[in-house]
Amino acid sequence: MEHTRWLDDDEQRTWRGFLTANRLLFERVERQLQNEARMPHAYFEILVRLSEAPDRTLRMSRLAETSLSSRSRLSHAVARLEQAGWVRRIACPTDRRGSFAELTDAGLAALEEAAPGHVETVRSLLFDALTPEQQASLREISEAVVAHLTGSPVWPADGDEESAGDTPADEADCPERSG
C-alpha cells in the first residue's frame, strides 16, 4: 500500500468502542442462547430465517448467502439441526446440486421456546441502553455499513422488496420441491 490512511484519535476511539461493544454484546447473546436454549446463535439465526421464509423453506445457497456463512459451514450447521429434528433437507429433483432447508414443526417449537429469552437478552443489553434517537442512528449506521460491504440487504432472506426476485428463480430451478 502506497499510503496508509491511519486512523485519527477520534476514529481510533470510535473503532475500539465499536469493536468492544460488538464483542461484549455477541459474547453475552451467545452465552444466553447456549445456556438457556442449548444452541449457538448461528443455529438460532438459521431457524429464524427459515421461520420467516415462505413454507418455512429456503434454498441452501440462499440461506448461506443471507446468513453470511460459507456453504460448507451452513451445510454442517444444517446437518446438526437435522440431527436435532429441527430442520429437514429436501433435494431438488431437477438440480442434483441444489437442495432446500425446511424448518420442521419441532424446529419451530424449539425456536418459539428460545425466542423469549433471546429477545429479552437483546432488549436488556442493547435497546435498554439506547434512546429512541440512538436506536435510529444505530440502525442507519448499520444499514450504511452493510450496504457499503455487500451492496444489498441480507435480512430478511425473503419477503422484502430487494430479495423478492430470488424465490421465483429458485422455484424455476426446482419447481417440484415438496415437504
Distance between the termini: 52 Å
Number of helices: 7
Overall shape: it is globular
Low-confidence stretches: 157-172, 175-179
Q: Give average pLDDT, whole number.
A: 87
Strands of the biggest beta sheet: in what spatial order? 1-3-2
Percent in helix: 55-70%
What's the quick description here?
The chain has helices spanning 9-37, 41-52, 60-66, 71-83, 105-125, 132-150, 166-173, and strands at residues 57-59, 87-91, 99-103.
Tell me about this structure.
The N and C termini lie far apart (52 Å). The protein is 61% helix and 7% strand. It has seven helices and three strands; from the N terminus they run H-H-E-H-H-E-E-H-H-H. The protein has a three-stranded antiparallel β-sheet with strand order 1-3-2. Helix 3 (60-66) crosses helix 4 (71-83). 19% of the residues are buried. With 179 residues, the chain is mainly α. Strand 2 (87-91) and strand 3 form a beta hairpin. The protein is globular, with a radius of gyration of 19 Å.
